[in-house]
Amino acid sequence: MRLIGQVWCGLLFSFGLFAQDLPAFQFDAPAMKESVFKEGLGLLDRERDEYATSLASFAANYVVDHKANPASLDFSQRAIGLAMHLSSRNRKMMVLKHQLSKGIMPQKVEAEYSPGTLAALFLRRAETLFEQKGDQNILLARALIDIAATVDPMNEDAVYAYELQKIDYGELEWKQFTEASKTIVPTF
To answer: What is the pLDDT of residues 132-176, one digit of tens each?
Structure first.
């Protein structure tokens, strides 16, 4: 009887150690072979890096605020994917991508912009990119509008622009930002 008790305790201990190694959640990290944004994008390198940092900061806080629910992880995959294509070596984006891919809950970060301000910034930049024309600028503008509508769903201008672009262009294909095999030919 004593042997059975020892075996039982050993099994419980083993399962306890195994359970500690399991990630808290599953996150399908975006992958990229090369950026969909080449020469001619209407953003300076510094701006690209700042936008990537803002996307990663918001995504980290969004995951924490929503306790890594599937919707927050889906949004974070898109935000990280876009950030990767804007600035592939952005520190915040790389750290967040690593943490989420390991199932580690990120810490809240000090964001430079409130959600309302960030959504307004993305919307204004998207308007400028549409005016500059070009496939890459339109693709980025559409992505920024999509993100802006999620960042601040109370921003009527962002939501209206998002709904208009769905009518004009259809849903944005986020796989071009999140899957390596889809990054060669951008679609807008």
So the answer is: 999 999 999 999 999 999 999 999 999 999 999 999 999 999 999
Q: Rounded to whole angstroms, what are the CA distances from 119 to 7, 36, 68, 180? A: 57, 23, 21, 27
Same domain as 123, residue 54: no
Q: Are 76 and 84 in contact (CB under 8 A)?
A: no
How many CA within 13 A on the CB side of residue 43? 26
Residue pair 79/59 in contact by the 8 Å Cβ criterion? yes
Looking at 57, 81, 112, which one is the last position of a domain? 112
Average pLDDT over every residue of 88-102: 95
Q: Residue 183's pLDDT band (boundaries 50, 70, 90)? A: very low
Report d(CA 146, CA 96) in Å as an integer. 21
Tell me which residue range forms the domain holding 64.
43-112
